[in-house]
Amino acid sequence: MNQPTCCKKPSWISELDLGHAGGFEYILGKCESCGAYRMNVFCVATGITGFETVSLSDIERMKSASTGPELKALMRKWGDENI
Fold it and tell me: Does the residue 26 lie in any domain?
């Protein structure tokens, strides 16, 4: 997982809790320093956390997905492709 220099807490602000999928917790947010959207990813098994870049198209899909199985499947797929 990445750890950009400017996108660390407290400059990173949480916007949307996307829940747990595939062993990871996902929280979408935005860096107040650079304006980039980043996904705060927390690995449940290891406790490792980091920030991943998120495309605008992925953000739109995440925001429009219904909660429950649809969102969980989307986040699992996103994690498989991006982590």
Answer: yes
Q: Please check whether residue 2 lies inside any domain of the structure.
A: no
**Residue 63 is part of which domain span?**
12-82
Q: What is the rounded CA–CA span in Å between residue 81 and residue 69?
A: 18
Asked if 52 and 39 touch (Cβ cutoff 8 Å), the reply is: yes
3-state SS assignment for residue 66:
coil
Per-residue pLDDT tens digits for 13-57: 899 999 999 999 999 999 888 888 999 999 989 988 888 989 999
Contact 30, 13 (CB under 8 A): yes
pTM above 0.90, yes or no: no
Residue 59 domain flag = yes
Contacts of 20 (CB under 8 A, 6+ apart): 26, 44, 72
